[in-house]
Write a structure and sequence with these properties.
CATH architecture of the largest domain: Orthogonal Bundle
Number of domains: 3
Number of strands: 20
Largest sheet: 6 strands, mixed
Radius of gyration: 24 Å
Distance between the termini: 31 Å
Length: 633
């Protein structure tokens, strides 16, 4: 999944709480001794499940899609494993109505206990079992307000048809499936989905349909074990178009040709990724572009990435998102963070892998532009969080908090810089061999930061101690801030951009011919690095020359609106309102609303726009913005 914010923006409600520090034994030397963690770092505080007692192994899911009531109804039949003395199995649920539960092949309902709801975790479902229990069948239906589900009205879609999609990460799968909702618990699944006959349903599997059938009944199988946050479902008037023999795209019918053109390099990305870190293990790799309300850039659901339409720029300049979600097929889906405290293992590795894929396809200058922009984002985030904020560590302590709090630039970009430093310390060939061995040794497993530290120490640092004499691994992982030896990423293609920034700043000179061949990354570097304080006339001149307001490239438009808000430049208000009412990607929403509410006039504007736009946003975005705007009233 892409990181939440393009600009660093501190969610004060999330970060004002006193954070429990993780105890660890830091060392001043380069070797990485196993950490003596003061807390149980393998315990998942975000799930009620007790997998050492009884754990799920396979799911047979049977659901009816009801667009009239906006609910899913049916059953989840779980095959389980248990200890000899297990008396119960515990599932995570959130706002589910449990109708009845049966065991094995017996159709007689049994008694169960659904605990009172926790604000973050939902409700624990306790089901009694015996020595003969090998399956648990839970009949249920979802709430109309299930947080993982977004039911779209026809007017909210391009094709003017009803649409449903799920978003399960981090702990929202429990709002549409009773499950053991922790990333360390993996299971295989099959599913039968019943939907209206004019619609198609697709899931996180390799055997999705490629055309709408006449019955509205679809069947799926995922033979690879996955954690619950990778369960995914989308239903709508969806069309498919082939890219190559193992890659294709899904989109609403009016969008399918445009999406296929934009993502034409998908097959080449898979080939490049395999050359780097080994065979793609999931069969097919497809992408579905969802309606605009999807709250993230992408979500790495196995075999079928969910993606935002905001990356359809018409010039293939934003396809690094596909490289990122593809990379998750190794870092995240194949080898998964065991708890959300270890989130950087998913995203830091994926950012590194993304840059390598982009370099392989488009050259080092291009990938370094993206890396440099990521570093700029990270520096802004660190400045906003504060140097001593414990959330600037890679290894987090999210106990008692929503794991969504940890999904920011730190895990992605600090993690990326740490892995890039490892490459530069030992050399690319040796580092690539190490990463191949890491994925090979931990495929279809969930791992902690401490597992990685131990593997790193044994297989790379100890055999090459002399190379690590100036690298403090513990500082990077377990301490706050950014170490001084972080890599500086110089970008040749930004030299010309910096010269234009200088000319504009010192001479008010705008040379349109110089920028005529710039790509998105160069424009972002320009907008992000012109002086923060500009006059109305300067902003007028920039917009007249470059037509930023209303730009169809969402990345450029978002960066421009953010700069204008910082300068109280109101001429963009109408276009910005249209933008905020047409996109649901939280990466754009939070910085813009967050900047608006810093002034009294801005607060009024923010609430006016949000009142119009809120209904089109996913619950993930609604929750964050509801809290943000309430706090800042």
């Amino acid at each position: 999944m892409e990181k939440n914010l393009s600009k660093a923006f501190l969610k004060t409600s999330f970060f004002s709480a006193i954070i429990l520090l993780i105890g660890y034994a830091a060392t001043k030397h380069s070797s990485t001794k196993k950490m003596e963690i003061a807390t149980d770092w393998r315990h998942d505080y975000h799930s009620f499940a007790e997998p050492n007692n009884a754990v799920v192994k396979h799911l047979s899911l049977n659901l009816n899609i009801d667009f009239e009531k906006n609910i899913l109804s049916g059953f989840a039949n779980w095959q389980i494993e248990k200890s000899a003395d297990a008396k119960e199995i515990i599932f995570d649920t959130r706002d589910l109505t449990i109708e009845k539960i049966t065991l094995n092949e017996d159709s007689t309902p049994i008694n169960f206990e659904l605990k009172s709801a926790d604000k973050i975790l939902g409700s624990a479902l306790h089901i009694p079992i015996s020595t003969t229990t090998n399956s648990v069948k839970i009949f249920y239906h979802t709430s109309q307000n299930a947080l993982a589900l977004q039911w779209l009205k026809p007017e909210q879609t391009t094709g003017k048809q009803k649409f449903l999609f799920t978003q399960s990460e981090a702990i929202l799968a429990r709002s549409w499936i009773p499950c053991q909702d922790g990333p360390a618990i993996r299971f295989t699944y099959d599913a039968t989905i019943y939907c209206p006959k004019n619609l198609m349903a697709v899931m996180s599997v390799a055997d999705n349909p490629q055309s709408i059938n006449a019955s509205g009944e679809y069947h799926y199988a995922q033979p690879k074990p996955i954690p619950s946050y990778l369960m995914a479902l989308a239903v709508g008037e969806i069309a498919f178009k082939k890219i190559n023999e193992r890659c294709g795209i899904y989109a609403e019918l009016p969008m399918v040709d445009k999406v296929a053109w934009e993502f034409a390099d998908m097959g080449k990305m898979v080939d490049a990724a395999e050359k780097l870190y080994g065979p793609y293990a999931w069969g097919r790799y497809d992408v579905i572009v969802l309606p605009p309300s999807f709250p993230f850039g992408g979500m790495e659901n196995p075999c079928l990435t969910f993606a935002t339409p905001t990356v359809i720029a018409g010039d293939r300049s934003l396809v690094s998102l596909v490289a990122h979600e593809l990379a998750h097929s190794w870092s995240g889906n194949l080898t998964t963070n065991a708890t959300w405290n270890d989130f950087w293992l998913n995203e830091g590795f994926t950012m590194y892998f993304q840059m390598r894929i982009m370099e392989a396809l488009y050259g080092k200058d291009y990938s370094d532009m993206e890396a440099n922009l990521c570093v700029q984002d990270l520096q802004n985030t660190l400045k906003d969080f504060g140097e001593k904020n414990p959330d600037t560590k890679l290894k987090l302590d999210l106990k008692g908090r929503d794991p969504d709090d940890g999904m920011n630039d730190i895990a992605y970009n600090k993690g990326y810089l740490f892995l890039r430093l490892m490459e530069e310390t030992v050399g690319r060939n040796l580092w690539d061999e190490f990463l191949k061995s890491w994925f090979a040794a931990h495929q279809f497993q969930s791992v902690t930061t401490e597992d990685f530290v131990e593997f790193l120490n044994k297989n790379l640092i100890e055999p090459h101690k002399e190379k690590f004499s100036s690298v403090n691994i513990n500082q990077w992982i377990y301490e706050v801030g950014l170490p001084a030896n972080a890599t500086t990423i110089n970008v040749t293609r930004f030299i010309e951009v910096d010269e234009q920034i200088k000319n504009f700043t010192t001479k008010n000179l705008i040379e349109k011919t110089v920028s005529k061949n710039w790509v998105t990354n160069e424009w972002l570097h320009f907008i992000n690095n012109v002086p923060e304080k500009l006059s109305e006339k300067q902003l007028d001149n920039l917009d007249a020359a470059y037509h930023f307001t209303g730009n169809s490239n969402c990345e450029i438009a978002d960066a421009w609106y953010y700069l204008c808000l910082k300068n109280h430049y109101t001429k963009i208000n109408s276009a910005m309102e249209k933008f905020l009412c047409s996109v649901g990607r939280r990466k754009y929403l939070l910085p813009l609303y967050g900047e608006m509410i810093k002034s009294e006039d801005g607060k009024i504007l923010a609430h006016q726009i949000y009142a119009k736009a809120r209904g089109g946003y996913h619950s993930v975005s609604q929750q964050t913005l509801d809290e943000l705007l309430k706090l800042k009233k």
